[in-house]
Request: fold
Amino acid sequence: MISFTDTAFIFRFLPLFLIVYYLVPAKYRQYVLLFGSLVFYAFGEGFFVILLMALIWVNYLFASYSFRSKLHKGDEYVVRHKKMCLIAGVVLNVAVLAFFKGRAVFLNNAYLPLGLSFYIFKMISFQADVYRGKVPRSAGFGEIATYFSLFPQIAQGPIMRYEEGDFGYEKTFSWERLEDGLRCFVSGLAMKVILADRIGILWNDIKMYGYESISTPLAWLGAFAYSFELYFDFWGYSLMASGIMVALGFDFIENFNDPYASKTVSEFYRRWHMTLGSFFRDYVYFPMGGSRCKKSRMCLNLAIVWILTGIWHGNGLNFIIWGAVLGCFIILEKLLYGKKLTKLPVLGNIYVIFLIPLSWVVFAITDLRELPVYFGRLFPFFGTPSVVNRSDIFNYLYDYWWMFLLCIVLCIPKVTGYLKKHAKSPAATAGLIILFWIAVYFGTTRARNPFMYLHF
Amino acid sequence: MKKTPFLIALLISIAVFEILGIIGSMGVYANEEHDIVKAPVLSKVFTGINNGIYPWEVFDSNERSRQLEASSLKKQKEEELLKRSQGSGDDEDTSSGATPSPTATPQNTPKPQSTPAPTIEPTPESKYPKGKIEPLRESTYDEYINHISADIYGDIGVLRAAEYEFSKVELEYFDDALFIGDSRMVGLRDYTELNEHADFRCETSLTISKVFSSDFRGKGGVEKALKSKDYGKIYIMVGVNELGTGTTEDFIGEYEEVINRLHELEPEAKIFILSIMNIDRERSDSDKVFNNTNILGRNNAIATLADNEVFFYININEAVCDEDGYLRDDLRGDHLHLMGASNSIVEEYLMEHGVL
Reply:
């Protein structure tokens, strides 16, 4: 797979694809997009493209059986028939995901096809939307296959719904759309390459001498650095993917909305990876009864959703712990203090700003023996190891203070709001051009970090 | 078009950098490697900036001729290596010699040639020859293009250096010592008491070629440090970051220049060449470049620079590696570094290897 940050993608694949896409007549663009997406996927994942194509075909078959049900007998039969198609479709998709995730756990991560978790979730949401009548009966194989395989989204989402794609409508060319898409793409590129990759070095560096050796302030700085890395990596990717989609004539899909300005963990996850959150809400939580049921049932529903979220994110036990811990806090917020926190001016923000980085530490450290060591450094209540460099934080602050400053500023909604509002000003245009070339410089000369959500 | 200023500015800037790249390709960027399928020519402008060649130097005729000369030298070297490899062809001697230990050779790379056992001319005082030790063979073209650091000296340098009888010293011994090194040396600075006695000029990612040019994060360069104080000992540990670049000959050439310059600037100081620390089994057995076979090739080379009078070689791997030569799992932080607390082992080892 060519990464969006590779010069091969930025200067070769993307311009070539856009030229071909807009040179062919509008009615054929969908097929160019389908073909280009499959080539893009096959380029990196080789034979797993066959799996993708097979899953596209099977999901199309289930959908077309479901569409056909209306031709038969009475309403009761139609509902039962559609339900059967839905259940079969969901079971098949979940089984494929479980099979490959299991293989990855017991054999090797290399056996996990790229983007599987993302496109399988698209397939599940598609089957549910077919059942709910949100997918038009006119949807043909071309549209469905294009939706599943869209190259900007195939590796890491966003998990777009079928109805959001306006499939079946011809995508007309517009210079303004192309401009808007590229602005988005470059903003995301800069976030990933200039911010996420640079601040991520700190997190890697503190592993260098072992977690036992770091001071408590550095342990906290590391937790914040990893949180920023993950945020700007994934937000950057989402902007790049959505930017390409806009350039191709689709609507912008929002995946992040200033999550660090939240006052509760529940709010944080309504603003973070929004397409995943809404997937779990609409296709898991609500069908189980959501919060319109007894409190005990609601707690169970939330627990199931967050355990599943943990499993979806990775193969290690730490991801399940991460999901379970977040689920616990969200349940506590629902039952006890959530509403109070949202009403208080600063306390909620402090709660989120400290709790979320701690949860990312659980997310980041896959070795469960290392996890207590790191937490022991974060909270040195049980003593400090004999050899700790107490001034280590100053070495890191010397190198990274400006990165932290930038990251913090970009987490403030007023700043991002201002930037969005003035995105087309001459200063913003010039700034974006400069950022683009700085990102190209880093991309050309520094070791590349793969996107962090790439193998989920 | 007025509605798309970003797109226009982007296309114009791409055109400008592309033109600079094309013009530079015939001059200042002649040395930059480039794959036209994967990246546009403009990427040479950025790799150029990274190598200290700025876009405006594209039009500088002096810089152009300098780079062209370097490029032709590089080509000449590659051709020589290739010719030699083709000439030696089937004559590869694998029968004897200094067998690298650990023997783990990364898969999918041509096996490094074994070095024949050196013929030793004993002197009355030493089992080993005095003066400069010549390599027993040259690196081959295959080794060069596969980033293998050939073991071209065998262990004669290490054995000769080990003849010196080091003395046990106290921490105060390091009061007039300067330590120069990469991230491994940073560990020694940050997690041992040496920091209270010696001065350090070390930083992550330091390579031998940057020893004199680095400013060590605003602390001041090596030359400045040497001018500000009279040092009696200089310790140097670099080499892991440049594994995979150039040949063993290139590395030892640069290393020799650096230690000679250190000697020139501080003639009274003893200069201690610390071995490049080996890496752990997991990384070494899976990495084509960062592995202990390549480290051994380079360590055997720098050990030959020790004359046991001014220059001394200290093999710290004796202290921190297991019987197979891998960095011990119980001592390591990540795959390449010692855990903070484990640096005291190196500190103690250095205290056992003083020169009085």
Summary: Residues 89-110 of chain B have pLDDT under 50 and may be disordered. The beta strands of chain B are 177-181, 199-202, 233-237, 270-274, 311-314. The CA atoms of residues 209 and 254 of chain B lie 7 Å apart.
